[in-house]
Amino acid sequence: MAAYLFQLELSEFTDELAAVVPIHRELINKLFGEGRILSYSVSIHRNMVWCVINAEDEQEAMEMVLSFPLYPYFTEVSCHPLLFHNTLPASLPGISLN
């Protein structure tokens, strides 16, 4: 699998867009659980989203973005294939022998 960085520009944050966010977050969380999304960030101004998607090829990654409930609100989508994507490993709590 390869990693693809998507930069997604959002239209103005409206009540209509806000109503779609919970459904969108549910899908994003599902894709995280499946290992399909490696990272997901939203700018403080709510106008930009960056996510790293794990897919077989760019077409599969783009199809995933097309399935996002917020897709109709994206005004610009750009995809950047990555050579690699490093993140800090998740910390596990210490083991207690008690």
In short:
The chain is α+β, with helices and mostly antiparallel strands. It contains two helices and four strands.
Features:
globular, Alpha-Beta Plaits, four-stranded antiparallel β-sheet, alpha+beta, 98 residues
Tell me what you see in this structure:
The protein has two helices and four strands. The chain is globular. Strands 2-3-1-4 form a four-stranded antiparallel β-sheet. It has one domain (2-82): Alpha-Beta Plaits, CATH 3.30.70.1060. By secondary structure, the chain is of the alpha+beta class.
Q: Averaged pLDDT, please?
A: 92
Helical coverage, percent range? 25-40%
Query: Biggest sheet: strands, sense, closure?
Result: 4 strands, antiparallel
CATH class categorisation:
Alpha Beta
* Rg value: 15 Å
CATH superfamily membership, which one?
A: Dimeric alpha+beta barrel
Elements, N to C (H/E): EHEEHE
The amount of beta strand, in percent, is: 25-35%
Query: Strands of the largest sheet, in order across it?
Result: 2-3-1-4
Tally of strands: 4
CATH architecture: 2-Layer Sandwich
Low-confidence stretches: none
Shape: globular
How many helix segments?
Answer: 2
How many domain units? 1
Question: Do you know the CATH topology?
Answer: Alpha-Beta Plaits
Cα distance, first to last residue? Answer: 41 Å
* Helix-strand makeup class: alpha+beta
